[in-house]
C-alpha cells in the first residue's frame, strides 16, 4: 500500500490517502478512518483498519486533481541520518575533504532538523546568502511503526512501518566548516520527501532496490540499497539500545556515490536545476532549486 498526504484542489486541509495503481488517490475517510495526519495514522492504525483501507472499493480522486505533499510534512522529531553509509560515497566524500569525511568503522549518525519537508514538485530554496555548495543526496528513508526499545537485530523488521524517499540536501561549506553537520544539513527546505510511504509488507526485507538521482536529466547517482555498509536492522537495533525510537521516527539511511561534491571538479546545484530522486518500488521525488 502506498500512503500519501495531499491537498484537494482549492483545499486548505491536508488529508491522508492511498495512492492506487490507477493513479487515483483514495482518502482514508472513504474507509471510515479519521486520522488527521500521517503521524496519527502511523501511531494508531490497527491491522483491521489497514485491511479495510486496502479493500475499500470507493472511487478515488484523479491524481491530477490533488497536490501531493511530503507523506510526513512535519516530522515529530528531527530526522536521524546516516553519513558515509555506502563505500563509494565515503571515498568520494573523502576526496572532497579528507579531514571532514574520514569514515570511522562505527556508523556515522547525525540529526537533520525539519520544520517542513517539501513534497513532490515543491521548490528547494538555494539559500545563496549562505551557500554556494548546494548538493543533493538521494536516500532510502525508513519509517518506524511502533516504539522501539532495545530491539534485537533479528527483530528489527517488525518495527518498520514503511519506506519513502528523502533528498538529504546539503550546504557543503557549512557542513564541513562547522565540523558538526547539523547546520549544513538543516536549512529550511533541505529535506524533500515523497512521493509516498510504501508500507513494509510491499517490499522484501532487507530491501534491494535501485536508487538513483538525475539533475536536469543527467544521471548522477545509480546504485542499489543492498550496498548499505550498516544495514537497516543494525541501525534500528543499535540506536534503540540507548534511545526510544518512537513511532513515526524517520531514519535516512545514507546516499550512494554520485553527489556533486564528488565530481572533478565539483558540480553544485544552482537555481533552476531540477533534481529527481528515485527508488525502485517507491517512485520519484522531483524538485526544482529556487
CATH level 4 superfamily of the largest domain: Fumarylacetoacetase-like, C-terminal domain
The number of distinct helices, counting runs of at least 4 residues, comes to 6
Q: Which regions contain 5 or more consecutive residues with pLDDT less than 50? A: none
End-to-end separation: 32 Å
Stated plainly, the CATH topology of the largest domain is called: Fumarylacetoacetate hydrolase, domain 2
Shape: globular
Compute the average pLDDT.
95
Tell me the fraction of residues in β-strands, as a range: 25-35%
The total of beta strands comes to 17
Order of helices and strands: EEEHHEEEHEEEEEHHEEEHEEE
- The percent range for helix content is 10-25%
- Rg over alpha carbons: 18 Å
Domain tally = 2
Largest sheet: 11 strands, mixed
User: Which class of secondary structure composition applies to the elements?
Assistant: alpha+beta
Identify the CATH architecture of the largest domain: Alpha-Beta Complex
Determine and state the CATH class of the largest domain: Alpha Beta
Q: Outline of this structure?
A:
The protein is α+β, with helices and mostly antiparallel strands. The protein has six helices and 17 strands. The chain folds into two domains: 68 residues, no CATH class; 210 residues, Fumarylacetoacetate hydrolase, domain 2.
Amino acid at each position: 500500500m502506498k500512503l500519501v498526504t495531499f491537498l484537494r484542489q482549492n483545499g486548505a486541509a491536508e488529508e491522508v490517502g492511498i495512492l492506487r495503481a490507477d493513479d487515483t488517490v483514495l482518502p482514508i475517510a472513504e474507509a471510515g478512518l479519521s486520522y488527521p495526519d500521517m503521524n496519527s495514522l502511523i501511531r494508531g492504525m490497527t491491522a483491521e483498519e489497514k485491511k479495510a483501507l486496502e479493500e475499500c472499493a470507493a472511487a478515488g480522486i484523479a491524481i491530477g486533481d490533488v497536490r501531493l505533499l511530503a507523506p510526513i510534512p512535519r516530522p515529530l522529531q528531527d530526522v536521524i541520518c546516516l553519513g558515509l553509509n555506502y563505500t563509494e560515497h565515503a571515498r568520494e566524500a573523502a576526496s572532497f575533504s579528507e579531514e571532514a569525511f574520514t569514515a570511522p568503522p562505527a556508523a556515522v549518525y547525525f540529526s537533520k532538523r525539519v520544520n517542513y519537508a517539501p513534497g513532490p514538485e515543491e521548490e528547494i530554496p538555494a539559500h545563496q546568502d549562505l551557500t554556494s555548495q548546494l548538493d543533493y543526496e538521494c536516500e532510502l528513508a525508513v519509517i518506524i511503526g511502533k516504539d522501539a526499545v532495545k530491539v534485537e537485530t533479528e527483530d528489527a523488521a517488525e518495527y518498520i512501518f514503511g519506506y519513502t524517499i528523502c533528498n538529504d540536501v546539503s550546504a557543503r561549506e557549512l557542513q564541513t566548516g562547522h565540523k558538526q553537520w547539523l547546520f549544513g544539513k538543516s536549512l529550511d527546505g533541505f529535506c524533500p520527501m515523497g512521493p509516498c510511504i510504501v508500507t513494509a509488507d510491499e517490499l522484501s526485507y532487507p530491501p534491494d532496490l535501485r536508487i538513483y538521482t538525475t539533475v536536469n536529466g543527467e544521471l548522477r547517482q545509480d546504485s542499489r540499497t543492498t550496498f548499505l555498509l550498516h544495514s537497516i536492522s543494525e541501525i534500528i537495533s543499535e540506536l534503540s539500545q540507548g534511545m526510544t525510537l518512537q513511532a513515526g521516527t524517520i531514519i535516512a539511511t545514507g546516499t550512494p556515490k554520485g553527489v556533486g561534491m564528488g565530481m572533478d571538479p565539483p558540480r553544485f546545484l544552482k537555481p533552476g536545476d531540477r533534481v529527481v530522486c528515485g527508488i525502485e518500488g517507491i517512485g520519484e521525488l522531483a524538485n526544482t532549486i529556487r
